[in-house]
Amino acid sequence: MSYAAVLGYGTVGSGTVEFFRKNKAAIEKRAGQPFNIKYVLDTRDLRGTEAESLAVTDFSVIENDPEVTVVAEVIGGATFAYDFAKRAIKAGKSLITSNKELVATKGAELLKLANENGVHFSFEASVGGGIPVIRPIKQCLSTDVLQSVSGILNGTTNYILTRMENDSITFQQALKQAQDLGYAERDPSADVLGHDTCRKICILASLAFGRQVYPESVSTAGIDKITLDDIRQADKDGYKIKLLGAAKRVEDGVSVITAPFLVPKSNQLANVGDVFNAVLLEGESTGDVMFYGRGAGKMPTASAVASDMVNAVKTNADRSAPLPWVDSGSQAFVKPWQSGTSGNILTLE
Predict the structure, then answer these.
(1) pLDDT tens digits, residue range 295-323?
(2) Fewest Cβ atoms nearer than 10 Å: which of 86, 125, 130, 330?
(3) CA distance 37 to 137
């Protein structure tokens, strides 16, 4: 019998608890043993929720319980989450997270710590929600030399741009629609200014090129300055405007950027609309490989978290396994992006 703890009972945390309840038989079959959630950590009163009988407010209860072998961190941010992550790993518990900020800023450190303690540190849900992209890069494409990775990594901004294009409405009108439908937060700055996409492309670039890429080293712009005139002109010229996170291998390093791009209509990414995400990889041997689907949402993300949890239970981490990426030790590793431009919008080559 194995037990897990879930840190945080927001959208993803509650989805993870619900996913375990609905799919208990399939989860235990995949895990090869009885497997359930023993604790849910949250500072709020969880009475009346599905997690009522599992609720704890003190992380040390989880940290010191030898029955708990897997901890799923879905709190978000990089303060409390970072402290809990380190403590869980040092206590010999595998760490699963959907926290893109944590992985983008502390990934190399936590990977090294997990390797030293013989446990898993897995983060499939941190990029693309339920789209399986992290594990395929780590495993299926691990022997290829990846030349570039780019993608539509934020469903909110993709929805806004799609509505501007299809309905001929302004950025502010499309943003209001997204907020009314629950696709955008009341404060949408992390999405529309590109910070969310930046964190995700940093994770993908670190994984693809083997060295930590930090968000602060990446030039980042959002879609808040995109106008209807920009959309219309792009259409006339044979392009669609998409907010992309993009990274490519260059001499002695990697070039990474988050920005609005003019994407040729012939490119696979141009036809990814609404809240959908897509990641396009270019391998030296495999050529182009694309992953597509819903990049966020309660249950798709919970599914990815649960999958990592099951994988941690059924397999043992190899202490001598090579790390997916290491700290580059130098901001110079990230080179300026070179690309054609059209006003303030880059052109995807």
Answers:
(1) 878 999 999 999 999 999 998 766 667 88
(2) 330
(3) 29
| Alpha helices in 263-344, H assignment, sequence order | 298-314
- Check if the beta carbon of residue 254 is closer than 8 Å to that of residue 202: no
Residue matched to tokens 């709190």:
75
**pLDDT number for residue 225:** 94
Distances (CA, A) of 347 to 162, 232, 335: 18, 16, 18
Catalytic residue among 38, 93, 200, 242: 200
pTM: 0.94
The first and second tokens of residue 45, run together, are 């009163």
% of the chain beyond a pLDDT of 90: 82
pLDDT (0 to 100) of residue 100: 96
> How far is Cα 327 from Cα 286, in angstroms, rounded to an integer?
27
Write out the residue range of the structural domain in which residue 24 sits. Answer: 2-130+297-314
138 in catalytic set: no
The span from the CA of 334 to the CA of 286, in Å, is: 25
What pLDDT does residue 317 have? 67
The rounded distance, in Å, linking the Cα atoms of 244 and 109 is: 27
Q: Read off the pLDDT of residues 244-284 as tens digits, 9 standing for 90 and up.
A: 999 999 988 899 999 999 999 999 999 999 999 999 999 99
Q: Are residues 140 and 89 in the same domain?
A: no
195 with 343, same domain? Answer: yes
Distance, in Å, from the CA atom of 113 to the CA atom of 101, rounded to the nearest integer, reads 18
Residue 261 near residue 349, CB atoms below 8 Å = no
In angstroms, what is the C-alpha Rg of the chain?
Answer: 20
